[in-house]
Structure formats: structure tokens, C-alpha cells
């Protein structure tokens, strides 16, 4: 079985999210947006046999009525779950529709989360525990990014990096 991700991905501003993430590379990230990680907000991660993915996507498309959301990112999250990898993420201003979407898709996929759903767009993960103070200037100079996001199904790695789009909703 492979690991997959149902996520929403930006329609027009992928390069802007990636360019902003690249400004943090001096923190020696173990995760950052770029060639191996597409900008996204995870909705659900799950494991499936490759031959089941097409039907999984069809099931989601049948059950979900709206495939796109307009989002603006003005805030940041600084978090660690294990005191080993430290994460910097952009936070969408309005998460109510994301919570609704996540609940609907979790039912279709028959998955449950290990922790409460926390919608965010990860910029980097670093081993540098002083990351928050070191990134203060960049976060203060940040100019909010807005875009339309669409539902997608893709492959992800064990860190949760969305590495390849397999299916994408049309607007």
C-alpha cells in the first residue's frame, strides 16, 4: 500500500508560496516547498493499493459538492510535535469550510485523525529549535497571499510532503 493525500492546492499562487518557503532555507529544513513538495493544505492522508485510487477519487467527487475555496493567509503557526522537527506554517484566515470538507472526506475514506484537524500550509520543517526567533524578521515582512484552492489527490511521503498530483478537480 502507498500513502496518499487528499489536499487542496493553489490554482495560481503555487510559485508565490514556494518562493516564500525558499526564504527559510538557511534554517536547513528537512521539509520545504519546492521540487519535492507542492504547496497544499492536507485534508486527509490515507493508505490504499494503487489499483483502488481511481475509484477512491470517483467516490470523493460524488460525495463532495464544492471542490474549490478562496483562501487568504495572514498568520503563522510555529509548532513541534516531538521536539525534534519544528514546523513553520501559514494559517488560512477562515478554516470553517476546511473543517467541513475534512469531515466529509474522512467519512468517504473511512479514516480518523490521531489529533484534531489543524488546517495549515506548511512552509518548512527544521531541526533548529531556535527557528521561531530566527525567522521573526521574515514573518514580519510577509505580505499575505490569497488564492483559489482546488481539491486534489496525490502521493505523499512519510513527512506528509505532497509530491505528485494524480487527480485534480476542475473549477
Describe the structure using short key phrases.
single chain, 171 residues, alpha+beta, Cyclic Phosphodiesterase, Chain: A, 8-stranded antiparallel sheet, 5 helices, 8 strands, 39% strand
Describe this structure in words.
The protein has 171 residues and is an alpha+beta fold. 26% of the residues lie in helices and 39% in strands. The protein has helices spanning 14-22, 53-63, 96-109, 131-134, 136-141; strands at 2-10, 29-32, 41-48, 68-80, 86-92, 121-126, 145-156, 162-168. Strands 1, 2, 3, 4, 5, 6, 7 and 8 form an eight-stranded antiparallel β-sheet that branches. A hairpin with a 5-residue loop joins β4 and β5 (86-92). α2 (53-63) packs across α3. The longest helix has 14 residues, at 96-109. It starts with a strand and ends with a strand.
CATH third-tier fold name:
Cyclic Phosphodiesterase, Chain: A
Oligomer: single chain
The CATH homologous superfamily corresponds to: Cyclic phosphodiesterase
Helicity range = 25-40%
Order of helices and strands: EHEEHEEHEHHEE
Gap between N and C termini: 30 Å
| SSE class | alpha+beta
Record field, number of beta strands? 8
Please name the CATH architecture. Answer: Alpha-Beta Complex
Molecular shape: globular
Low-confidence stretches: none
Please state roughly what percent of the residues sit in beta strands, choosing from under 5%, 5-15%, 15-25%, 25-35%, 35-45% or over 45%. 35-45%
Q: Mean pLDDT, nearest integer? A: 93
Amino acid at each position: 500500500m502507498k500513502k496518499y493525500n487528499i489536499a487542496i492546492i493553489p490554482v495560481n499562487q503555487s510559485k508565490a508560496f514556494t518562493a516564500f518557503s525558499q526564504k527559510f532555507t538557511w534554517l536547513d529544513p528537512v521539509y520545504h516547498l519546492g521540487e519535492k513538495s507542492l504547496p497544499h493544505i492536507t485534508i486527509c492522508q490515507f493508505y490504499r493499493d494503487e489499483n483502488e485510487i481511481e475509484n477512491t477519487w470517483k467516490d470523493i467527487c460524488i460525495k463532495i459538492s464544492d471542490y474549490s475555496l478562496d483562501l487568504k493567509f495572514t498568520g503563522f503557526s510555529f509548532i513541534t510535535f516531538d521536539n525534534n522537527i519544528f514546523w513553520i506554517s501559514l494559517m488560512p484566515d477562515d478554516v470553517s469550510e476546511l473543517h467541513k470538507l475534512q469531515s466529509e472526506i474522512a467519512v468517504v475514506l473511512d479514516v480518523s485523525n490521531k489529533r484534531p484537524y489543524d488546517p495549515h500550509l506548511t512552509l518548512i520543517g527544521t531541526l533548529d529549535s531556535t527557528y521561531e526567533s530566527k525567522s521573526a524578521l521574515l514573518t514580519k515582512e510577509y505580505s499575505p497571499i490569497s488564492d483559489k484552492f482546488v481539491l486534489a489527490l496525490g502521493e505523499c511521503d512519510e513527512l506528509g510532503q505532497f509530491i505528485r498530483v494524480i487527480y485534480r478537480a476542475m473549477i
